[in-house]
Design brief:
The protein is an all-alpha fold. The chain contains two helices and no strands.
Length: 67
C-alpha cells in the first residue's frame, strides 16, 4: 500500500498535468482501488519542487514552488 499512497500523493499535487492524473486513475481502476480510499503518505508536504521547465506540471501558477 505504500506505493499506492505515493501515487495518491502525486495525484494530489497541484498543477500536475492531466495525462499523469489520468494514468494514475487508470492504474488504480485496473487494481480495483479508488484514489479516495488510498491513504496518502504525505512525502511531498515539505519538499520544494522545480516547476519552471518541468514537463510534469502545467505552467498555470508557476510562481509558487512550494506545495
Amino acid at each position: 500500500m505504500g506505493i499506492l499512497g505515493l501515487l495518491a500523493d502525486i495525484y494530489a499535487l497541484p498543477n500536475l498535468k492531466m495525462n499523469l492524473k489520468f494514468d494514475i486513475e487508470v492504474l488504480l481502476k485496473n487494481l480495483g482501488v479508488d484514489v479516495k480510499d488510498v491513504k496518502r503518505v504525505s512525502l511531498f508536504k515539505n519538499r520544494a519542487r522545480e516547476l519552471e521547465g518541468n514537463p510534469d506540471f502545467s505552467n498555470k501558477d508557476a510562481t509558487s514552488t512550494k506545495p
